[in-house]
Amino acid sequence: MNPKLPYVLLVGAAVIIFILSCMLVSRGRRSPSCESQPHIVEKTGSTSQSLVFADLTPEEMAQVVRYLQGNLGVPLVDASRAKPSDNCIASVDVQVPAKAEVLRFLDGGGARPRREALAVLYFGSQPDPNVTEYVVGPLPTPVYHRDVTVQKYGGKVPYHRRPMLGSEYKQVGAFLEMVAFAAAPTFLKEVFEYDGTNVAFQTTAPHGFQSGDRKSWFIVFQNVSGFFVHPVGLEVLVDHSSLDISRWAVSRVFYNGQYYRDMVQLESAYVQGRISVEKVRKAPQDGDFSSMKPRAPWAAPFPLQYEPQGPRYSVRNNHVLFQAWSFAFGMSVSTGLRLFDVRHKGERIAYEISVQEALSVYGSNCPGGMSTRYMDGSFGIGRYTSPLVRGVDCPYSATYVDTHSLSETLSPSKRKASLCIFEQNLGSPLRRHYSNLQSLYYGGLVNSVLVVRSIATVGNHDYVWDFIFYQNGAIEGKVQATGYMSSSFLHGDGLRYGNRVWEHTLGTIRTHAINYKVDLDVGGVKNSLVAHDMAFEMTRAPWSPEQQIERPRLTKKVLDTEDQAAFRLQSKMPRYIYFAANSKNKWGHQRGYRIQITSFAGDHVPEASSMEKAISWARYQLAVTRRKEEEPTSTSIYNQNDPWTPTVAFANFINNETITNEDLVAWITAGFLHIPHSEDIPNTVTVGNSVGFLLRPYNYYDLDPSIYSHDGVFFTSEQDFTACETNPIACLPKTASCLPNFPLFTYDGFQNM
């Protein structure tokens, strides 16, 4: 044996031990886990006071149901299995107290308002079927109910105006499958290979052409993933106006460009060879082109956001604190996400900011598409708020909040993680300046905002609803649209109404309009509306009179009446329009908050239309009216099914009343025109489909309040900008080098469907 071999082995072993030791030491220096630290949060508003706006708890909902069951004197069927001829509870929601009563409690030391619920009931088992709304209270142990239907709407709500229950959709589906389709077995079998399970139906609305109608076109699709873009060319008009299901009937049938009296006539024409058949290739269960399954394998993780020292905001019950901001939040069954008592630096900026309606108007050369005007509040924007997926719908580390509702059932339902709240670094400065003239310095502020988000999936559409709070006192309301397009079967002159996106699929043109209610209280309840804009004026240069200068100047106008403050959709609106307070800032200007709208709206339905008054809020990009308790919303859930005699007509709110030094409400409409195209397959992206508004301080402060943010950065050429005391950003390798504590991924979106 070579005598040097033991030494070589010893040296080799020593080297290996050294390398392993280095690796262990290196691993021991791994970044520690991020630990939450106490943060400075300005005390603005009371957590317990915000409960005056809180959604009903499941226990309160259950108490209301028990009370109604025991005190109305009529049997109540569970709405999930109710027939049109039954009595049932359609929904139960919180009844927000009157504003004057709430403000006495919040600001004047008055008594806490009674807590009450609003219950919507369908009475189909009566000589005069109708919809009735009851206020039930006080909670948590109700002892009274009060019919408020006539008080709210000026009369009873006829039964035909009721929104369709899920049970009615099921009953229509059963009618189509068991009665209507039974009349055309040969056609369905040979053309669609129909087996009773391979088609899906999509309803249209409104249901007819005049008050009292309840006739709905049901569009037939292949029953596959993303069925909305798999039309087969068949549409059936069902008359389901009778409360007796056995009297429902087919009123008309459409197939591949031709109309038929009923399914019997369609079957006869097919058997006799008098139909032009367009066979659609059978799609696999995953939908093929409509599948949202990624076409590429998972690669490196996408960038993630984390909070090195824990959240810098707090959420307690329905109350949120973030830096100088505080507000209460809630979720209406019909209209979705809403905010109350929004304050900045302790001063109330807005009493209420809420979604009112989401409207879509379709065009097509097929009957279902051309007659569709969806008013999503009728279906329930809050009701269809969906559970959120960590890391996609919201940042992984966001705070997720469960919401509860009672709709079309006798028991409350829980939607886990259906609302999220998070701080987001937008990756750009809120403001900055690099000075290379005279003095040399850099000053900037990271644009970190707080976002409150919910996402509603109403049929084919997914709406991402955001309220965003900026450090300079601005608030943004934003909606992003995604989901699947709704399509028609391509035939004839279909390309007049959209683009072909697949072999037999026409992506149909549609407009989207979103309405918001913004009850600003700027420096107090009483405000005026002021418009500032610009105009060019010609003048002679004082130092050279023979020369002319065109210079912009400021124009000012106080808008005194509601008529002056109603700006039509495509009309020119002053670029600076703001709610003015009765107080002034340090520089002598009226303190104000400016309304700035981001919209790419299509044209509004012509006012000559018989149904236009039901959606008359969409005439206006902005309308400011005097606030009235009897005008709480711009529309009604009953407008969808009877737009010809609308229960609430927003146009009636505008009656030239004075709006100077009054409690005012801004009704804001933002929208976009969507002409679907091939890139909307498999479904629509949010990019470019985002609209909304900003509320921005306008002389409200003496200077930008964000200068007091703890996130500011400033250093000069003479300072050591690598020192933590001078530049906190330089310390990030120390203060932010930690591993985020991401919770395990869970999802409850497929539970209790």
TrEMBL record:
Domain Copper amine oxidase N2-terminal, chain residue ranges per copy: 76-144
Stretches that traverse the bilayer: 7-26
One MF annotation (Gene Ontology) recorded for this entry: primary methylamine oxidase activity
Cellular component annotations (GO), alphabetically ordered: plasma membrane
Cofactor note as given: Contains 1 topaquinone per subunit.
Modification comment: Topaquinone (TPQ) is generated by copper-dependent autoxidation of a specific tyrosyl residue.
EC top class, as a word: oxidoreductase
Location of the Copper amine oxidase N3-terminal domain: 162-257
Sorted UniProt keywords: Copper, Membrane, Metal-binding, Oxidoreductase, TPQ, Transmembrane, Transmembrane helix
Gene Ontology terms: biological process: amine metabolic process
Cofactor: Cu cation
E.C. number(s) listed in UniProt: 1.4.3.-
Entry-linked Pfam families: Cu_amine_oxid, Cu_amine_oxidN2, Cu_amine_oxidN3
Span of domain Copper amine oxidase catalytic: 305-707
Classification via InterPro entries: Cu_Am_Ox_Cu-bd, Cu_amine_oxidase, Cu_amine_oxidase_C, Cu_amine_oxidase_C_sf, Cu_amine_oxidase_N-reg, Cu_amine_oxidase_N2, Cu_amine_oxidase_N3
Keyword Repressor: no
UniProt record similarity statement: Belongs to the copper/topaquinone oxidase family.
Record's protein name: Amine oxidase
Source species: Mesembrinibis cayennensis
Gene coding for it: Aoc3_0
